[in-house]
Amino acid sequence: MKMKNKRAEQIGAKKRHREQLKSKRRNEPVFERREPVLQEKPTILIVCEGENTEPSYFSQFRLSTATIKSIGEGYNTISLVNRAAGLAKEKDYEQVWCVFDKDDFDVTNFNNAIVTAEAQGFGVAYSNQAFEYWIILHFDDHQGGGMHRKDYDKKLNSLLKPFKLAYDGERSKIITEEIFEVLDGIDEKTNQERKVLAIQRAKRNYKQFEHANPATEESSTTVFRLVETLLRYT
User: Fold this and answer.
1) What's the CA gap between 221 and 137, in Å, rounded?
2) How far apart are CA 101 and CA 219, in angstroms?
3) Which residue ranges of the chain lie beneath pLDDT 50?
4) Cα maximum dimension of the chain
5) What whole-number distance in Å separates Cα of residue 116 and Cα of residue 147?
6) Tell me: the pLDDT tens digits for 127-157?
7) How many beta carbons lie within 10 A of that of residue 108, not counting itself?
8) What is d(CA 108, CA 152) in angstroms, rounded to the nearest whole number?
9) Rounded distance, CA 52 to CA 175, Å?
10) I want to staple 168 with a disulfide (CB 3.0 to 4.6 A). Which of 23, 79, 86, 172 is the partner?
């Protein structure tokens, strides 16, 4: 009889405990689960002089904390900077960069374009003479002496030949996915990333000049500044 009473007490205690828990849950505040908010990544605007080469190159960078908007519409020097200023007013960009070459453009226009862009807070990635010089530095330790842009395509294709690739600098002027993959790869001789070598070489050559007259500082490029910036977002 005592055993039955004890068991009945235990069952009753468990029942009362369950009722207390239910009552407590009913009185607890209800917290609604918030829907996850997708934050838009900041966008880096890259306005290029070339319609094909530069946009096809920069658009292939894969960034994890930013997006790239790389456009090329055929503008050059001052007109390119003005175009960048117009686009910058249309949207709030994280950064704005102007990419242009010396080519045959007037010395004053080229130098003024650099000053005007920097005065507006834009980054400047210029090449003297042309953008292909930056690509060559991924393979060749060019010391910064003069190299005419007419020789760039021949030089670049000799460097791409071991990879069974070719750059069509006369017509398409596209940095293909296959070429970009090689540029993004490892140099077998140094066991370093080719883009890191290009940055090091471009920096060294850039430091050889005083920068009082960039239009006369051949061969040089500041594309390394833009690439270093992009790599911070990878």
Assistant:
1) 10
2) 11
3) 1-4, 6-7, 10, 25, 30-31
4) 112
5) 27
6) 999 999 999 999 999 998 888 899 999 999 9
7) 11
8) 24
9) 8
10) 172
Tokens (6 digits) for 110: 């080229």
User: Over the stretch 59-74, which tens digit does the pLDDT of each residue have?
Assistant: 999 999 999 999 998 9
Residues in CB range of 88: below 8 A, 6 or more apart: 45, 96, 120, 122
The pTM is what? Answer: 0.83
The radius of gyration of the chain from alpha carbons, rounded to an integer in Å, stands at 30
Q: Which residues of 4-16 are buried (b: 16+ CB within 10 A; e: fewer)?
A: eeeeeeeeeeeee
Q: Which two tokens stand for residue 38?
A: 């997708």
Instruction: Give the strand pairing for 123-128 and 95-101.
Output: parallel
Residue count (the chain): 234
